[in-house]
Amino acid sequence: MAGPAYAPGPAEVLLDVRDLDVRFDTADGIVHAVRGASFQVPRGQTLGIVGESGSGKSVSAQALIGLVPGADVTGQAWFEGRDLLAMNGQQLRDIRGKRISMVFQDPLTSLHPLHKLGWQLTEAMRAHGNVSRRAAERRAIDLLGMVGIPRPAERIDDYPHQFSGGMRQRVMIAMALALEPALIIADEPTTALDATVQAQVLELLVRLQGELGMSLVLITHDLGVVADLADEVMVMYSGQPVEQADRRTAYYQAHHPYTRGLLESIPVAGDTGRLRPIPGQPPSMLDNPPGCSFRPRCRFALDRCATDAPPLRAIGDIPGHRSACWLPDDVAGQVARRVPVAAAAPAAPAAPAGPPLLELTGIVKHFPVRSSSLLSREHKVVHAVDGISLQIGDGETLGLVGETGCGKSTLARTIARLQPVTSGTVSFAGQDITGLRASELKAVRREVQMVFQDPYGSLNPRRRVGAIVGEPLAVHGLASGAARKARVQELMALVGLNPEHYNRYPSEFSGGQRQRVGIARALAVNPKLLICDEPVSALDVSVQAQVINLLKDLQAQLDLTCIFISHDLGVVEHVSDRVAVMYLGKVVELAPADALYREPRHPYAAALLSAASVTDPDLARQRRRMTIEGDIPSPVDPPAGCRFNPRCPRAQDICRVTEPPLVAAPGDGAHLTACHFPIETPAVPDGARPLMLVTSDSGPGPAAEAASGVPGTAAAAAAGSGNSSVTDAGADAGPGSPDAPGETAAAGEVAVAGPASGGIEGRSQWRLAWDRLRRDRVAVITAAFILLLILLAIFAPAIAQLAGHGVDQQNDATGLTAAGLPRPPSSSYWFGTDDLGRDVFVRTVYGARISLIVGIFASVSAVIIGTTIGLVAGFLGGLADSLLSRLMDLVLSFPFLLAAIALVSVVGPSLTVIIVVIALFSWAAVGRIVRGLAMSIKEKEYTEAARAGGASSLRIMFVEVLPNLSAPLIVYTTLLIPSAIAFEAVMSFLGLGITPPTPSWGDMLAESIGYYQVAWWFIIFPGLFLLATTLAFNLLGDSLRDALDPRGERLISALRRGKQRRRRPARSAAAGAPGDAGGMGLAGTEAGPR
Amino acid sequence: MIRLIIRRLASGIVVLWIISVAVFGLFFIAPHNVARAIAGRQATPLTVALVSKRLGLNRPILDQYGSFIWKLLHGNLGYSYYNSEPVLSLVGSRIGVTISLTVGGAILWLLLGVSTGVLAATHPRSLIDKGATFFAVFFYSMPTFLLGLILLYFLFFQLHLAGVPIFPGSGYVSIFTSPGAWAQHLILPWIAVALTTAATYTRLTRAGMLEVLGEDYIRTARAKGVSERRITYRHALRAALTSVVTQLGIDVGVLLGGAVVTENIFGLPGLGQLAIQSVTQQDLPVIIGIVMLAAAFVVVCNFAVDMCYAVLDPRVRAH
Question: Which of A784, A909, A1088, B187 is the most exposed place for a label (fewest CB within 10 A)?
């Protein structure tokens, strides 16, 4: 299974891609996603494609089989004697699923939620040939068994939601295998999975590939996965392959500065030195500067790099090793490789000397499972955190690791008092803060701050960065005016942002920069304790290293105590003094980082460690994975006894009954484990611990090879400043110069990453919306029409005077024919006259008055009522929410028109009654939408950040929530107006609205019915005005929506682009965004009364 | 599943009860003289007093409400003040018209709306999409009575003038009397209701389909080599259907309670027509009867929608 040491000959090539080029035509310009990529997939082997987000790795694979609609794809891709890129749709469909199949990243979204698994599995088979349903089903059952689904015959009729993430990914693999294809393309197949599950799935994939002799293209951002599984490796950057080599060469003899930079920037187990991030960030795919695309971030750039793009050329004498770089061949392998320092007696992290800064005693946090009914008796709870006691010393960093649902984020939020505890106490600096009231809590909030996970969700998109960072200062009244600005700019400089960008908006920053903004905000009030909840998990590897360095520097410089939460073991070890491993709401192991990683005692901790990715091909293959079976059980129904017992290889009877306490290991008081049968000695005798820790002198280790293989390594390493961290972790722990932590990385990022706009003054969402609106012809025309209508309505009396006919003036002499019929349009009666000889033009203009008054007043009052009630319901939640929601449902389920008619029949028709009736029945639709929006905004991390910063509920409502509601509200009001106008017309038409003789378009139309045979103008003009008005408002509303919330547009471009999914945090709040559909109708009846 | 049904039924009953309270409140304790309104403007105080007594308006409010509900529960909606016919039979004689109009219209607008929505979504930004989108916003903005008038003008009046009287201008023939004449009388009303309503479905379907077509599982289907046609209908439309079903429930529920405007324009003797007529005649029991019936239709349709969800979406069943 070892990779070949030579380039694959033509006979062994399964897929031969030449000059693949993929472009997308977008509103912002042409996106050149893949630029002339050439690569080969050897038969029966695995090609690993590595790259950060936006490197074009997924697009290049998907483009080959026509899965990126709307893309302009050129080049050749020879597969089994035919060129894939020359095929038509039908030919490609015959290949897809049969000869080439795919496994996608997110198993939760990649299976159709509404179809049975069996249906989805057999569909692939039946699409490609005459298979009987029965035979296909039998095959599907076999396949499910093959990928390790227990009881496949029963589960074939289940739906995807009945499976866990890992199981779903197994089903995806089964689907891909259905027709035994020659090639499987697995696009980040384990990125969305938890570490222990990830290990199972990867193992399965590789085993099946070997058994069935398929080729595999494995696309990933995770160098560890590739190091472990690939035969050949291709590194992509900015749409181009920058390096190709066999697995070992790619790691030990890396040539391209980007490959080397990636290898250097990854935290490696056992190493706590300063990371060496690649400065800056990947370039935009929009601009295509000459020369090497990596040049702006490259430490070794030569003059010619700026002008000549380096081709992919052979490097050295290793066959198949190619790199797109002008540097001499002998730089290959010069990697400041992070080799863990061998058991150098760990400088025992100072056991907290003084009293602990933070002390948790028996923290329990249960969430009730939402049940909307009063009838259901069972009250189930999610056992998110179940009895955790911890102490954190002053200046210490505690790492919290665990997989999804282990309760680590809940614990963090509970400590920050973003949610109340169910039981237990939190004391901070000796003070019990568990039961503090809001006013008392504010003081604590100054001391405890949070950094959030999602760089996109944690900053309010409608506020300037200066205001965001300065918010805690404003809340606590610490500084205002110029002093606040000075402090904010100081903070921005501290975290490596350009202080000049004070007035920019979050959307104008990159992900890494936004995380810096979030850190600056947390530091604004000089907190003692900083809680970082997955602060780097949404960032690319190279940027991640920048932020980690920044955090470490700041911690040392500002003497912060930190809680650092992550699912990434390497990152946690890198920053933490002590680490707590959590599983299903419990701490199962708590120990100094060094001890934990070297000698995990809890089987779960050991399994987790062994599942972590190892970025070193030889180590990755030497190690013995300790795969644990199954998935994490539901926290609603945690197993009795030890929570890990159903998956534990060491479990015995007692584990199923008695929960083990967290106790110290014999001889090591700092190493606590909650296990009846802890691992006493390293699990594997031959020195291969679950996680590799290899000393640099341990024989033919990679370090030795790297150092000996290439002359001049030492010199080059010395030139690079960070190399000392390899051997002397302690010395480089602090920042180079105390005033400017992360200086190099940060400066690089700012310099490179200036978005296209580049200005110092930010462009607000409103400005952008206005620009979009101005370019929208429909919007301009309809707005002009509405403006004209408003002017007509305002100056109606003047117009009547000009026309010479009063609005109710019955012109018997001139307005009626001899037979007493209306007169057609003429120079004195522009729109003719009506049955009483009145001027239709004047009356139509007056009708506009009525319509606009009703439309605007009714809509505005409905929006005000609806917004207030919706905000209260959505923001307060609980009982108020239940009651108000029911009320809204009730109003919405009222037969609106009939009820209005009945109401009017009781109180009698009038203008006020009409307005009140409309408002009364249409606020609920607004209320429901506002409630949804408020709830989703409340869930947003920026709202939590404001709360963590000490802002009061009222302040959050006005500063964070309302500004984000205003755009949708403007749209809704605009769309409500035409419904109200149409409704008024209907009521007046039925004789229940505006009472004659006051002119209303509906009433005029009712009067005209008897005359349409003889007086078309009588019906045409009011009808035309009515239609034009409602149409104009609806069109304007649609344009406003597109301008203010370009979600619909994004949907389309996502569709055309073939969704490129970033690795995003799982916490996506329910989409409360205004739907594209339907718009606003009265009382839920979208099209108004009929 | 059974629990879901019970829960929905219970909440439907609660809604009906609240509506009954609201209706009762509106008509019997509103600050106006019911008896005088019923007795008519010219009534003597004696007549008013008599009416008041006959209606039991002098009894305590709870008492009145009790007997109101009691009768309601026995299907007794009272008697028309105008011609003393039982409200139930009055309503019964009209309901066939409204059901005919609603069902026919619903079939038409579903076909029209969903197909244009699918077309638009599968050809985003093309001329077809723009055409369908404009069609949608145009008819969405069109008040039904205006469309009705336009249809009458061209398809009834002008055709009659031209000597081609295909479409009658008003009236109704029962389907049991003559299915042909039934359809002929309803074609224009169906078109009027369907066109204005279909617009919503076009928008809903288009938006829903666009969203679904961007989902990962559509890409999975493509990767399996499934044909585009099958992807459009079996994968995308299937998933976009829930919002359409919700809307259909609302629309049918509301329309069954009385297509007031359409019936008025096309002279169809349905519930809506009856409602307007009773309002002009101040025929209180009939109005109450129709409002309660309309509310019941809405509740029943909402229930049907919930049941449809359970059929359409296995995740709902699980809850």
Answer: A784
